[in-house]
Automatic annotation (TrEMBL), chain A:
GO molecular function annotation: metallochaperone activity; nickel cation binding; zinc ion binding
Record Pfam families: HypA (PF01155)
Its biological purpose: Involved in the maturation of [NiFe] hydrogenases. Required for nickel insertion into the metal center of the hydrogenase.
GO BP terms: protein maturation
HAMAP family: HypA_HybF (MF_00213)
Sequence similarity: Belongs to the HypA/HybF family.
Listed name of the protein: Hydrogenase maturation factor HypA
Keywords: Metal-binding, Nickel, Zinc
Cross-referenced InterPro entries: HypA/HybF (IPR000688)
Record carries keyword Zinc: yes
Chain sites annotated for binding Zn(2+): C73, C76, C89, C92
Transmembrane segments: none
Positions bound to Ni(2+): H2
Amino acid sequence: MHEMAICENIRVLIEEQARTQHFSRVERVCLEIGALSGVEVEALRFGFDVVMRGSVAADARLDIVETAGTAWCLPCAVTVTIGRRYDPCPRCGSHQIQVTGGEEMKIRELEVT
Amino acid sequence: MSQARLIQLEADILGKNNGYAAANRARFAEAGILALNLVSSPGSGKTALLCRTLDMLAGEFPCAVVEGDQQTSADADRIRATGAPAIQINTGKGCHLDGHMVGHAVDHLHPADGSVLFIENVGNLVCPAAFDLGEAHKVAILSVTEGEDKPLKYPDMFAAADLVLINKTDLLPHLDFDVELAMANARRVNHRVRLLKVSARTGEGMQAWLDWVRGARLMALSGRPSQAAE
């Protein structure tokens, strides 16, 4: 259900762009979704088709670029890659890590006509 | 037939909400209002905890409440019975409050300068994590009738919270709930989180929670931009 709300936000952003950038149809939407953003990509794909019906982005192709979760490990003092928020540092096993990337939820680009 | 073209957007999907939240935050900062976003699963005892908190803080400083639920105004009625002004937001099909709804609620509520605004979010540990309301802190409430692994199952919420209240501790003698394990799990997802054990029913641990609120309120008061300029 959270993904539906995110799709509604995407629709509003696209419709705003349609007005300001003067296009009537979106062929492709490219999103960037971080591994730690809390978004379920499959649910987002499902919600996208439903929410975009009747909009300029109805039938648009959805590309999702998934970015890795990264964190700064305090004991190791290096950036490490993590898959989930509660993962420990893969080097030292510590939970003293600070998430530095992978929380993104962005529309990267639109292909429009 | 027009030519296809590419628009580089790089737009934050929640940018609109973040804009509303930033406006709320600026408004709270200017008025020295401490806004707390209370988040939990349904049935964690959020409203009971809030009623007890308002009773204990009555007369000390003004408090106001924004209540979020999908339906009914039952919770706002319970809050108003404590004497605190409250406004109910029914989100309908929505599963969380957003910055825009809270801004409107605050327009109607007019919390006094220097007050504490408690925003009771919709009972849901998933969606409210992503929607900033302009609060100073998210406070997550985890009751001992839930599982110790909740922080691991819903890491986004526990990572976003500055304080976790472990509620209904009066029931611990009747349960197998391992408080230490629940606290360790919360620290796994958020090593800076503060944890307090409370019982809204018996009042156990409530003073520590009220002291935390008092401390956070002083920070909100001293952080007012107009004071900094003087």
